[in-house]
């Protein structure tokens, strides 16, 4: 793990922790992922740092050579091999952010219709308006929405940190590949606790 520092204004981006995905067969217990994401959110808010909560309710409209798995666009979007088990329109509440994230009035909330959180939203402009120069990314799926968001953030000029114990994927091999081979080329990685400790240390003067 190569976590070194966080910029003075660093934002947390939480990807696709929403009601419709909580029952899917991820490689790691989803409750643990949610708890770590929530802990990061609390730490960031405690120091007045931006928190962006992202959900998904569609996918890119372009033609692809390979059809979405099981004919489901949402499944293809986040990288889950079983697709949307409901088929057809998403049921009511499927896109709702889970209550454990403790959404606050000051949080940034965006809905995406692509894998990454930047391409189909105004997330970049919302972050830049707050002076953000670095992002910490968590959520699901590691090789889907999380990796795509990390790539887009890096290409947009943000410093990128990935909390690798606060993300998961339905495909263990894809999760491992992203962490071992992709993320080190996009930014720095670290544990949830290491990131929280760094947030607390850098901002300690605010609570003194």
Mean pLDDT: 88
Q: What coarse outline follows from CA principal-axis ratios?
A: globular
Per DSSP E runs of 2 or more residues, the count of β-strands stands at: 6
Order of helices and strands: EHEHEHEHEHEHH
Count the DSSP helices. 7
Distance between the termini: 30 Å
- Give the helix level as a range of percent: 25-40%
Q: Which strands sit side by side, in order, in the main sheet?
A: 3-2-1-4-5-6
**Which regions contain 5 or more consecutive residues with pLDDT less than 50?**
69-87
Structural class: alpha/beta
Largest sheet: 6 strands, parallel
Beta content comes to: 15-25%
> Rg to the nearest angstrom?
16 Å
Describe, in short, the structure shown.
34% of the residues lie in helices and 18% in strands. The chain has 208 residues and is an alpha/beta fold.
Question: How does this structure look, described?
Answer:
With 208 residues, the protein is an alpha/beta fold. It has seven helices and six strands, in the order βαβαβαβαβαβαα. Strands 3-2-1-4-5-6 form a six-stranded parallel β-sheet, sandwiched between helices. α1 runs parallel beside α6. The longest helix is centred in the first third of the chain and has 17 residues, at 30-46. The radius of gyration is 16 Å and the shape is globular.
């Amino acid at each position: 793990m190569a976590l070194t520092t966080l910029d003075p204004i660093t934002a947390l981006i939480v990807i696709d922790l929403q009601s419709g995905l909580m029952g899917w067969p991820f490689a790691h217990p989803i409750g643990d992922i949610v708890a770590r994401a929530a802990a990061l959110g609390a730490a960031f808010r405690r120091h007045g740092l931006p928190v962006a909560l992202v959900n998904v309710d569609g996918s890119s409209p372009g033609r692809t050579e390979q059809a979405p798995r099981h004919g489901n666009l949402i499944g293809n979007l986040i990288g889950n091999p079983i697709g949307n088990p409901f088929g057809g329109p998403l049921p009511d509440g499927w896109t709702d952010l889970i209550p454990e994230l403790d959404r606050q009035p000051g949080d940034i909330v965006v809905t995406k219709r692509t894998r990454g959180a930047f391409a189909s939203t105004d997330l970049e402009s919302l972050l830049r308006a707050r002076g953000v120069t670095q992002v910490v990314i968590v959520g699901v799926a590691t090789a889907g929405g999380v990796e795509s968001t990390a790539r887009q953030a890096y290409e947009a000029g943000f410093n990128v940190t990935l909390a690798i114990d606060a993300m998961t994927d339905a495909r263990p091999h894809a999760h491992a590949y992203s962490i071992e081979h992709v993320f080190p080329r996009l930014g720095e990685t670290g544990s949830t606790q290491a990131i929280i400790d760094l947030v607390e240390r850098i901002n300690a003067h605010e609570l003194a």
